[in-house]
What does this fold into?
Amino acid sequence: MANTGYIDTLKKPQTGTNTIGLYAVQCGECFKRRLISNEEECEVIRRNLSLLEPFTCNKKPDVSCADPADIEKDATRTWVIDKPNIPRTPVGFKRKLVLRRDFSKLDAHYVTPTGKKVRSSTEVAKYLEENPKIKGVSVTEFSFTVPKVVEETIPKDIERKPSAKKAKDSKPADT
Ligand SMILES: [Zn+2]
It folds into this structure.
């Protein structure tokens, strides 16, 4: 399996919305994780990864594989793993990922140049239709594919809704 997985990390939840707090990518050579400073940089790396160009430490300025890892993938943070092939966000739009309160999954939405939230391809199409001034942007440049939450890094004290399958025979937790 390819070891060039690109990983977003999420800070431990505080009050308010749980958005992605930190971004990290794993080096394809030494497997250390490097922090990525911002979302744009992440999108470039993600696109390169989808072209099968692995990330390596020396792509960051002044860093090499000999340097210690920036961050360890441990349970002090909740980690989410990005899916490959997310298109680069069109100029003027912002892609946002919000973690559900029960940590079950993330939801994706875009904020448009006029500050409107769009939550599906249908809404994007409608928005583009209503805003003909936004040119050269196609619905295919939007993706509502969300990263997967790494089960082992979900805080133990988070109340999870039992899944439909388990709900029938689940008992209240011991107190
Ligand atoms: Zn490295």
